[in-house]
Amino acid sequence: MVVDPAFRVSRWIRDFSARGATGVRTKPFDDWSAEIQERLRQVAEVGDDEVMAIASFTSQKEWVLLTSARLLFAQNGPVHSIDLHDIRDATVDLGPSMLRRPRSKRELRELIIETRSGDTYELDLEPGKPFFGFWNVMKLVAASSSNGPSAHLHVPQHMSNRCQA
Fold first, then answer.
1. 30: Cβ–Cβ under 8 A, 6 or more apart, which residues?
2. pLDDT tens digits, residue range 9-36?
3. What's the chain look like in SS3?
4. Domain segments of the chain: what residues?
């Protein structure tokens, strides 16, 4: 069964709000000003068939954008684009490096995106409720892809890509 992209995005936004909250720099795409929306469309080269869902925007060089088809992000470098069907899981690093940093759950900000090919990307997101809302949405994305997410929390030993938005 094919799900309408606009319906899927509305579900993600509803889940983002229910399990997290809009923040200063992380919110549903339509809640951003027209200027920020246009900047993101341009730098992300969003297709006409894509519906924008949630964006985290720090600057034109540091941002994350979830659309109905892709997860796009940049950190002072090239734009990365991951097809949503390629996302295997979204998790956090609970390994030794995390244990050395005294943090509460509300301070979590690094979300690890794992792809089916084994690549990992670390997104630096707004901590607190915006982080948890985005994490939950990415779990939904992974679960809806062809093979679903991993059944357990996977802690990558080495991060292959680190990005901040």
1. 37, 52
2. 999 999 999 999 999 999 999 999 999 9
3. CCCCHHHHHHHHHHHHHHHCCCCCCEEEHHHCCHHHHHHHHHHHCCCCCCCEEEEEEEECCEEEEEECCEEEEEECCCCEEEEHHHEEEEECCCCHHHHCCCCCHHHCCEEEEEECCCCEEEEECCCCHHHHHHHHHHHHHHHHCCCCCCCCCCCCCCCCEEEEC
4. 5-164
pTM of full prediction above 0.85: no
Q: Which of 143, 162, 165 is nearest to 15 (CA)?
A: 143
Whole-angstrom distance, CA of residue 115 vs CA of residue 156: 12
Kindly tell me the sign of the dihedral angle through the C-alpha atoms of 119, 46, 56, 67.
negative
Q: What CATH number has the domain spanning 5-164?
A: 2.30.29.30
